[in-house]
Amino acid sequence: MVAIKDIRAANELIADGTAPRIAVFVGGTSGIGQLTIKALVTTGARVRIYLVGRKSSEDRSKTFIEEMHTVNPKAEIIWTEAEVSLLGETKRVCETIKTKEPHVDLLFLTTGYAPFCKRQETSEGIEESLSLSYYTRILFIMHLLPLLRKADAPRVVAVLGGGLERLNSLQLDDLELKKPENWSGRKAQSQNTTINTVAMDKLAGDNPDVTFIHSWPGWVDTGNVKRGQENGSLTSWIFRLLVEPLVATISFRLEDSGQRHLFQCTSALYGGRGVPWNSKPGINVNLEAGTGLFLVNPWGDCTPNNKNIVQLREKATETVWEHTQELLRPYL
């Protein structure tokens, strides 16, 4: 476990020379994304942040941006409207960023929710929670990789369930979970976790100069547990009476979660580049230090899950990657 006092001490070393100069936060209008932006801005470092979110989040996001400018006038946060469940919108936003910036140091991805409700498709014909938690995330990475490669110490952090992936959680013959018997909130959440790791492992292998982190945040009481439920359903009542009080009891403090994820964005513990870390280096999914894909648990430890990663590479990577490329190709 990486103690929170050590995380805070490391984060206090963040300055203009060690902070990500240009960052893109997708899903940063609330929850862990917003907490991490706040932690980054509070360091006082000079940073430019693209905050990508849907129209309904614009007013409160602009209020948040004004608050952050008061905290740190050197931090520039650019509101960037997009319906990020849509691949076409994701492409549009990425193309805009690519015309404005010479590089991107950090891509931070938190979009998604646990869909404890009926299957709901976007206007592009993709189940919404799968699109948010997987397809648009991977599309953001692929579009911005040319800018990430131009950065000194580029990093991609995706927050979902790193370390929890298993081969038997995948429906390899139905990756979009279109068959009724394959659809449930639990199955969708497990599949999203695993295919994120599969795709990021492939991308990390193809881009050895970029550090990838798949983070499992643990319980953080951001209110996201309420999303994806049908009002008045039995599931919504169970969550209200049992799950929500439990989450409130066992969750990490919000500020601590922001500090922990800022640490993942900046510390040399993961990949050897960034804010100096004078203890044992982190180990990636190949059981090596250095760059690559790191699976990070709620306490900041690397949990390589190597046995499952090897199985996934042998039996799932080709199928997942070919499917992903076919679905994303019109938007690349």
Automatic annotation (TrEMBL):
The keyword Transmembrane does not apply. InterPro entries: NAD(P)-bd_dom_sf, SDR_fam, Sec_Metab_Biosynth_Oxidored. It comes from the Eukaryota. Keywords: Oxidoreductase. One of its GO terms (molecular function) is oxidoreductase activity. Signal peptide: none annotated. Pfam families: adh_short. The keyword Cell membrane does not apply. Gene3D superfamilies: NAD(P)-binding Rossmann-like Domain. PANTHER family: ALCOHOL DEHYDROGENASE-LIKE C-TERMINAL DOMAIN-CONTAINING PROTEIN (PTHR47534:SF3), YALI0E05731P (PTHR47534). This is Uncharacterized protein. It comes from Stachybotrys elegans.
